[in-house]
Amino acid sequence: MNVGLVIVSHSSKIAEGVCDLAREMAADVPLVAAGGLEDDSGVPLIGTSLEKVLEATSTADQGAGVVLLTDLGSAVMTAEMALEFIDSDQRSRVRLARAALVEGAVAAAVEAQSGADVDAVTRAAEAAIVAL
Amino acid sequence: MNVGLVIVSHSSKIAEGVCDLAREMAADVPLVAAGGLEDDSGVPLIGTSLEKVLEATSTADQGAGVVLLTDLGSAVMTAEMALEFIDSDQRSRVRLARAALVEGAVAAAVEAQSGADVDAVTRAAEAAIVAL
Amino acid sequence: MVEGSTSTLTTDWVVAWLRESARVVSEQRQYLIDLDRAIGDADHGENLDRGFTAVVKKLDDGDHPATPGAVLKLAAMTLMSSVGGAAGPLYGTALLRAATSLGDTELIGPNEVAGLLTAARDGIVARGKAESGDKTMVDAWTPAVEAAGTAAMAGASVAEVLAAAANAANAGAAATEPLIARKGRASYLGERSAGHLDPGAVSSGLILQAAVDAAGAQE
Amino acid sequence: MVEGSTSTLTTDWVVAWLRESARVVSEQRQYLIDLDRAIGDADHGENLDRGFTAVVKKLDDGDHPATPGAVLKLAAMTLMSSVGGAAGPLYGTALLRAATSLGDTELIGPNEVAGLLTAARDGIVARGKAESGDKTMVDAWTPAVEAAGTAAMAGASVAEVLAAAANAANAGAAATEPLIARKGRASYLGERSAGHLDPGAVSSGLILQAAVDAAGAQE
Ligand SMILES: Nc1ncnc2c1ncn2[C@@H]1O[C@H](COP(=O)(O)OP(=O)(O)O)[C@@H](O)[C@H]1O
Ligand SMILES: Nc1ncnc2c1ncn2[C@@H]1O[C@H](COP(=O)(O)OP(=O)(O)O)[C@@H](O)[C@H]1O
Ligand SMILES: [Mg+2]
Ligand SMILES: [Mg+2]
Ligand SMILES: [Mg+2]
Ligand SMILES: [Mg+2]
């Protein structure tokens, strides 16, 4: 049972692409995209959505916890809001990483693949900025 | 005439998504995706390709120069190789930024939109890591 | 200032406020887009129009909740999943905190109005970590909250408290023009952000004015 | 060591080397994939198979260039746009530098062989900035270059120089097993990268062995 990752991006393409990329090195890590949003008619838009982040977080959590990674500032706000909505028993195993999205996600995925816990996975994501 | 950006990623989705995202704040900046590659039958693969980077660099250069941004290490190698292949008159106005891909691209695009030169655009990309 | 206004507001006022916000945001859609084009990504009007349209749709779909707080919470949740931009979590948190400040209260007097506006502003600050002068919607909300508090302490009516808040918000929004943005997308522009109104501060003025107009319509 | 080998190699050898590399890489595809699965992204065999297949296709399409250097350059360019992974720019740069070291030379003697291998290795180092012991293909190429240089200085034949290089590369590849990766994807694993062979070092051994076999076949 590995820590999962949620990739919160303004763009669904970025979120999906980051999952594709990270999956290459982390076959057993739940990688869930929470990118973009849709208008009423289902047209994809650039932006973030609380609903998507909450759904993705529950999908990615197989019991070992979840680390959220975000792109721009408003994605961080949506993710922080999501943390407030997660019920308290899950909350203790969810982290928001302050990391470069693509670089951090790959590093975090590799760490999660090794069976590391949420804190170690978060540290791996955050260290990837420095290692750029 | 604005500095252009080339987004070099292992994933075509990431490269296109980053261009979509940056375009929102930089309507007049040439943003060109150089993501992924295709196999013989056109199936999209994760990886980078010199040919794509060279083509994207010439598309993005409208005379004011180009800044390349990359994701993982092998994308950096492909981009550095591209720099060696660019002919010498264009070479002087092409830069490779050491930046977080998504965050750096948005910052660089905003800077380019203001009419800044390649060095200022590169600095904006590289400063975006620090500002995370 | 609204003369002869009712002494307390009810759930109907909250519903009317949200509907009037939707109307004015839709009317000012292009203006807000243009403001955001100058120092952002040209979507603030679109974002808010989409978000408040979704709120109205929720209000139209069957019975809305009974208490003011519950309606505000419904609106908050809807905005947070439909606005898409920074305004989503910010206005969402604002309305959610306002809802929390009301609890099960059914009748909203002048002090409750001042209290819910303060809670809303505190929510925006908690969410976005902007300070006054950072050229954000906080620069509309903080003067609004101060004016509302002063009016409520002076014994003003709910309508007067709301009017004081809206006027101060609009003045605060106008005062964002010379500022350099230090939060949000506009901060990417650095000094080039000066000389433009902050879109979120302007929309905050519109939404607080909608609260005034909704209270007037309730009489 | 190949007995009675020719004293110089020609363009035909370069073509045979590339074709034999394609054959062995295709044969060892799954093995290289499995090595890369353990400490990378499970694509090294796929990447090289795709790249060398593209090279063979270029060689099959009409006449290939006349000089050894020009054929190496064609292969380099093809690898750089078709391999996709780190091995693309690395082997691409290696072959390109080898081509440059040959210039218009048509006949490759022992010293030219040692020289082109050195140039290739230097290209890999310039491109990837790995040092010996970083658990990369450099750990196969550097001993290969040293062995080739020693053999050439001692008056060995081209076939003997190549054989010395391939043997040293294979030994270097085997010696990557206990190392901790400090470059490339495997470096993400930190200490967990120990206990596995480096895929690029192993493929380098295969490719240098292909050079030996191609020289043997040329006799
Ligand atoms: N950190 C923040 N704190 C307070 N307000 C903010 C912050 N970031 C952005 N804003 C407000 O949000 C407005 C932009 O909203 P919107 O266009 O919907 O979001 P986005 O920038 O994601 O496109 C800004 O004009 C500003 O008032
Ligand atoms: N910076 C580097 N310097 C030298 N060799 C490297 C470097 N990075 C990676 N390699 C080599 O490339 C091999 C992986 O190639 P490949 O799987 O094709 O690339 P990727 O890691 O992009 O999937 C590694 O086993 C290693 O030998
Ligand atoms: Mg906007
Ligand atoms: Mg936006
Ligand atoms: Mg690989
Ligand atoms: Mg790969």
Automatic annotation (TrEMBL), chains C, D:
SMART domains: Dak2. InterPro entries: DhaK_L_YcgS, DhaL_dom, DhaL_dom_sf, Dihydroxyacetone_Kinase. It is an enzyme of class 2 (transferase). Keywords: Kinase, Transferase. PROSITE patterns: DHAL. Gene3D superfamilies: 1.25.40.340. GO terms for molecular function: phosphoenolpyruvate-glycerone phosphotransferase activity. Residues 12-213 form the DhaL domain. Its EC number is 2.7.1.121. PANTHER family: TRIOKINASE/FMN CYCLASE, TRIOKINASE_FMN CYCLASE. This is Dihydroxyacetone kinase subunit DhaL. The lineage of its organism: Bacteria, Bacillati, Actinomycetota, Actinomycetes, Micrococcales.
